[in-house]
Amino acid sequence: MIPTEEKKGMEFHEAVRRRRTVREFADRPVPEEALRRVLAAGLRAPCNAHLKSWQFILLRDLERRDQAVVEKLKARDMKGGEEIERFVGRFEEEELKKVYRRSLPRQQSMMLEAPELLLVCYRMKPLSEVRTLFELNPLASVWMCIENIMLALAAEELFGCTYTPYESRGLKEFLGVPVGWEIAAVIPFGYPREEPGENEAEDLDARLHVDGWN
Ligand SMILES: Cc1cc2nc3c(=O)[nH]c(=O)nc-3n(C[C@H](O)[C@H](O)[C@H](O)COP(=O)(O)O)c2cc1C
Predict the structure, then answer these.
(1) In this predicted model, what pLDDT tens digit does every residue of 12-59 receive, in sequence order?
(2) Which of 97, 183, 203, 210 has the most Cβ atoms closer than 10 angstroms to its Cβ?
(3) For atom 22 of ligand 1, which residue has the closest CA?
(4) pTM of the entire structure?
(5) Which residues, at least 6 apart from 123, have a Cβ–Cβ distance to it below 8 Å?
(6) Quick check: 45 and 141 in contact, CB under 8 A?
């Protein structure tokens, strides 16, 4: 028999196409069953060494969430056009400037306003002890888990944003994250305030090489 979790949601390629980063949410709660299906999909991701050393934290208490986001993570919205333009001035690509103009005013508010705020944690040795790219496999693996989560969200018509903390020591301490664990991403999610639209397909042929980089 097909397990119920696999009968739910849209077809795979449709979910891949639909997934978008969303930073503004409708005032509508996320059904608990959908949330559990999404996190279960995350735990089905492949990982190095087979350990799946991942843990999830949901920040639901709004006072605690506020403290975590504002005081500990120090996430802030860039409001002034001038500050934003100064920031985007360092980039040449118009597409990149557009992304930052859209995202910089929402870095704090997306997390405070989202119906759910999820932290994805993973176990990893200190960066100071990492000598090879191979040793970064725990980081690679947790992002497979995160991508499963983002696609499973899209399959439920839910959307969010993967925010990567620049500095997470204070936040880890505040939340009681054990030593040896890191926060890979902070993910606000919910139903979108507006229809997110779809990304244009990339030109595959410009990126595909056979038998060498030609
Ligand atoms: C590793 C990673 C880190 C990201 N960090 C942030 C972030 O800190 N803040 C943010 O608003 N978006 C962040 N994003 C979302 C990207 O801006 C977004 O995925 C990108 O602009 C492409 O848009 P799309 O997801 O709608 O296709 C991150 C995405 C990834 C994969």
Answers:
(1) 999 999 999 999 999 999 999 999 999 999 999 999 988 899 999 999
(2) 183
(3) 21
(4) 0.94
(5) 51, 53, 138, 180, 181, 182
(6) yes
Report how far residue 151's alpha carbon sits from residue 189's, in angstroms, rounded to the nearest whole number. Answer: 12
Tell the residue nearest (CA) to atom 11 of ligand 1. 103
Looking at 3.90.79.10, 3.40.109.10, 3.40.50.2300, 3.30.565.10, the CATH number of the domain 4-193 comes to: 3.40.109.10
**211: CA distance to ligand 1 center in Å?**
32
Determine whether 100 is exposed, middle or buried from the number of CB atoms within 10 Å of its CB (0-12, 13-18, 19+).
middle
User: Which of 51, 50, 174, 77 lies closest to 119, judged by CA?
Assistant: 174
- 18 Cβ contact list (under 8 Å, min separation 6): 10, 154, 155, 157, 196, 198
As given in the structure block, the two tokens for residue 15 are 């979910």
